[in-house]
Amino acid sequence: VRDRILMGLERHIQGRSEKEIMNTSILQAGHAIVSYYICGSKSIYKTTVVARGPLLGGTYNFQKEKEQYSQSKEDLLEKICILVGGYAAEKNLLNDKQISTECSHDLKRATSLAYVLVRKFGMDEKYGVGSTSKDQVSDAENSKIDSAVQNILRES
Questions:
Q1: What is the pLDDT of residues 124-137, one digit of tens each?
Q2: For a 10 Å CB count at each end of the chain, is N or C smaller?
Q3: How would you label 80-103 residue by residue, b for 16+ Cβ within 10 Å and e otherwise?
Q4: Could you give phi then psi for residue 5, rounded to 5 degrees?
Q5: Which residues are bridge partners to 59 per DSSP?
Q6: What is the pTM of this model?
Q7: pLDDT category of residue 66 using cuts at 50, 70 and 90
Q8: Phi, psi for 114 (deg, rounded to 5)
Q9: Rounded to whole angstroms, what are the CA distances from 13 to 4, 17, 42, 56?
Q10: CA–CA separation, 42 and 155 (whole Å)
Q11: Using CA atoms, how far apart are residues 90 and 67, in angstroms rounded to an integer?
């Protein structure tokens, strides 16, 4: 019952190749390894390649108590690292021609979270403090924000 609530209903996908399952395995292993080394072994609830809901697999972590009310910069950077971990695993274990599009959702979420960290929470030392939207600042400022986000993603 817990898995159905957290992850959605299990889906059986006809014709899913072993290569696709292997790519999903590598991606999820990357998330799990980064999560293990950043958050500790007790944070991982489950890693699976079984398709549930809209996803082909997933790595699910227990939430920290403090995340229910507020999050520190360290917490947000940890989430970004975990999201990028799957892509890093594919990039390191597969050649460039075999990297799948499966990590695109994770990269989009990591990028969005990095923008929130810089724009909304003002948690970037180089860009500075201040909550802004894309429309409120000049093109030069948006370029600085883009650069700060790229640095965060590259360091992750």
A1: 877 766 666 677 77
A2: N
A3: bbbbbbbbbbbeeeeeeeebbebb
A4: -70, -50
A5: 47
A6: 0.77
A7: low
A8: -65, -40
A9: 17, 10, 31, 9
A10: 25
A11: 29
For the chain, the straight-line distance linking the first and the last C-alpha, in angstroms and rounded, comes to 34
Of residues 21 and 11, more confidence is placed in 21
For residues 38 and 89, the answer to whether their CB atoms sit within 8 Å is: no
Q: What does residue 56 show for φ and ψ, rounded to 5 degrees?
A: -85, -10
Alpha carbons 25 and 47: distance in angstroms, whole number: 9
Radius of gyration from C-alpha coordinates of the chain: 17
Read off the pLDDT of residues 89-106 as tens digits, 9 standing for 90 and up: 988 888 777 788 888 888
Q: How far is CA 62 from CA 12, 21, 42, 55, 111, in A?
A: 26, 25, 8, 19, 22
What amino acid is encoded at 100 in this protein?
Answer: S
Q: What is the DSSP letter of 63?
A: P
Nearest C-alpha neighbor of 106 from the set 88, 91, 93, 87: 87
Q: How far is CA 12 from the centre of its chain?
A: 25
80 to 35, 48, 51, 108: CA distances (angstroms): 11, 20, 23, 10
